[in-house]
């Protein structure tokens, strides 16, 4: 697949940025969505320029809400023009935005917060996949990937809405892979370990303690890095991974097996 492209939802920092950088070095065109203001917006601009230098200027970022269906649909024609008869090898969901609170105390979660977190961190992937299929931009060998976490099956302080959304994302991805497997399109989730990204700092004020505890319990005595996850994504895009489908793949050095 010479004219190969990746669409990365949540591309400006953390896992999304590392994946974009890795794939650009491998010749992929990168279409990215991020929603940033202030200094982080400047980081996204800098990343876009870096990617352009790596893949012969085959990069386009939009600083818009990728979870907004109207935004998504409005970009389909433009995305198709960027591809220049190419196809989407990867649709990557790397959006880390949701309500970090408990269900009950000290402030009960509101329905609006739950609905938003579910849509942004899980349900919008359904509509992106539908739109790309309707525009014939996915082919046999295309991959749908999402990022999950231990919070999909463990309870954590302040992680209630996001934990529910991660469990939903896993179910969404399983169903996508089950329905599209006969077309040669696969869908999987990647469970990374605790990774010191900007998203982690938003989950808990104690994130530095999480990092230190993780280093002690991880069999490899370090935390996961975005580059670890980017390497796994690269492996999964290989044709030899065509039969990996409807699965959660761990990229955490064995962290999930350790207390």
How would you explain this protein's 3D organization?
It is a single chain. The chain has 259 residues and is of the alpha/beta class. The protein has a single domain, classed as Rossmann fold (3-Layer(aba) Sandwich), CATH 3.40.50.720. Helices cover 45% and strands 16% of the residues. The chain has a 7-stranded parallel beta sheet, sandwiched between helices. Helix 1 crosses helix 8 and helix 3 runs parallel beside helix 4. It is globular, with a radius of gyration of 18 Å.
What amount of the residues lies in strands?
A: 15-25%
CATH fold type? Rossmann fold
Radius of gyration: 18 Å
Give the helix/strand class: alpha/beta
CATH architecture: 3-Layer(aba) Sandwich
General shape = globular
Adjacency order of strands in the biggest sheet: 3-2-1-4-5-6-7
Distance between the termini: 42 Å
**Count of spatially separate domains:** 1
